[in-house]
Amino acid sequence: MKQPNAFQPFLFSSFQKKHSLTLGDLKWKAFEVHDFLGDAEDWGMVIENMLAEKNPALLTKLSLGTDHDMFCISSDDRDALHEIAEIVFEFYDNDALLDACIERYAQYDFVPNQPVPCQ
């Protein structure tokens, strides 16, 4: 029997106490509306800026991968990965929330702690 993925929308893998999440569908079109490619660097910017504002302590536990067509997050802390997966799950499949998060966090000159339109 197949077990549900507790790390949706990511795929979870683990090797020698190093854990990683991989995002297969980068939602390119959602980013293109905002003049971004939607590649791993753009996802990294969204996640990094979001966590800088909402949970800087969590950000310190994660390493963000920027391979062009695959976004990865790795950590020694499995619980930290589960927490970021839950955060992304909240907006990933909701077009309006995803759009709001891209609008808010896909910024090169991001300033944390301004009014947040998503979540």
Q: Could you please describe the fold and organization of this structure?
A:
By secondary structure, this protein is α+β, with helices and mostly antiparallel strands. It has one domain (13-105): Alpha-Beta Plaits. The chain is built from 5 helices and 4 strands. It has helices spanning 28-32, 40-54, 56-59, 78-92, 95-105; strands spanning 11-15, 18-23, 63-67, 70-75. The radius of gyration is 14 Å and the shape is globular.
What is the strand and helix layout of this fold?
Blueprint (H helix, E strand, L loop, with lengths): L10 E5 L2 E6 L4 H5 L7 H15 L1 H4 L3 E5 L2 E6 L2 H15 L2 H11 L14
Antiparallel strand pairs: 1-2, 2-4, 3-4
Organism: Psychromonas arctica
Pfam family, one: Imm51
InterPro entries: Imm51
Q: How would you describe this structure in keywords?
A:
single chain; 119 residues; alpha+beta; Alpha-Beta Plaits; four-stranded antiparallel β-sheet; 5 helices; 4 strands; Imm51; Imm51 family immunity protein
